[in-house]
Design a protein that fits this description.
Elements: E1 3-12, H1 16-28, E2 33-36, H2 43-51, E3 57-62, H3 90-99, H4 103-121, E4 128-130, H5 138-150, H6 163-170, H7 174-197, E5 205-207, H8 217-224, E6 232-237, H9 245-250, H10 256-263, H11 266-274, E7 277-280
Parallel strand pairs: 1-2, 1-6, 1-7, 2-3, 3-4, 5-6
Helix pairs in contact: 1-2, 4-5, 6-7, 6-8, 8-11
Length: 285
């Protein structure tokens, strides 16, 4: 059975350097999909580029942390800081969304507003995922299953990285990779079962969780060697043609340019052919 790989760029719309990398990596490289932040500063530029690239599968990158909302602050006050933005800490945001009165109804309204914003782009909705993977939060996940159905959601990223394969490729962080993936495994299994029950496609596993911002050519080459027969593996990254002030602030330490270069690497294209790995998008399932 053949192996399939989805190559996704996250944070599409955050910065024009990201958008340019997405366009070039799709036209000249192996990038098959991108996850769009509909409220981000360069979203309009990203949408214009996506409309010129029907071959690029575009999904909704739901932003409920480290960003600005689609709705006015007075409509979703329980979710926001005093400056009208979401919290910067995913952990603090997760706790707030569990315990603050009114958070669930505010989340439902904001999630629906971001789906509406995506619908207005006219782009087919390929998949849904969350910025910093906050879509795995039980409250948000349940709301997505309900609301996403109204907007034709057919696929969702499952951010589970197989620890043995992750360590085999990276050769570092063995303890943390096994501990984090092991702790998440039961909830990942629950998510997978609920998605399957609702007819929502998900990937079998992914790469990028433990090496966020460092999906370089050499690492991805080693990751490709670990793919199992008959599986769909998503590789997600954060490419940019150059480091801007915004990227330096929001992604300190990320190797955005190296990730962009990896997506255009002839060595990766050759490896995909040699290993009989087919680049796909969620819509292909």
């Amino acid at each position: 059975m053949s192996r399939k790989a989805i190559f996704t760029a996250d944070d599409f719309g955050l910065d024009e350097a990201v958008n340019e990398a997405v366009e070039r990596a799709h036209r000249d490289g192996i990038l098959t999909s991108a996850s769009l932040m509909v409220t981000a500063p360069a979203a309009a530029d990203a949408i214009a580029r996506a409309r010129r690239m029907p071959g690029l599968a575009v999904g909704l990158h739901l932003v409920l942390v480290q960003g600005t909302p689609a709705l006015p602050p007075d409509a979703i006050g329980p979710l926001l800081e005093a400056d009208g933005a979401f919290l910067n800490s995913p952990a603090r945001a997760g706790l707030r969304y569990f315990f603050r009165p009114g958070a669930r109804s505010a989340l439902a309204a904001e999630i629906r507003a971001q789906f509406e914003a995506f619908r207005r782009t006219g782009l087919p909705l390929d998949h849904v995922d969350g910025h910093t993977h906050l879509h795995i939060h039980p409250t948000i996940f349940s709301l997505l299953l309900h609301i996403g159905r109204e907007y034709g959601m057919r696929a969702m990223r499952l951010p589970y990285e197989r620890p043995a394969a992750s360590w085999q490729a990276a050769q570092r962080g063995r303890l943390s990779r096994f501990a984090i993936s092991g702790a998440f495994a039961p909830w990942a299994a629950t998510m997978r079962a609920r998605l399957a029950r609702d007819g929502i496609v998900s990937n079998d596993s992914l790469f990028g969780f433990h090496d966020t911002g460092a999906m370089t050519e050499e690492l991805v080459l080693r990751q490709l060697e670990t793919l199992e027969s008959g599986t769909v593996t998503e590789f997600y990254c954060h490419p940019a043609t150059h480091r801007t002030d915004r990227l330096a602030r929001q992604m300190p330490g990320y190797r955005n340019v190296e990730e962009f270069e990896a997506l255009g690497s002839p060595r990766l294209r050759d490896a995909l052919k040699r290993l009989d790995i087919k680049p796909v998008a969620f819509r292909d399932f």
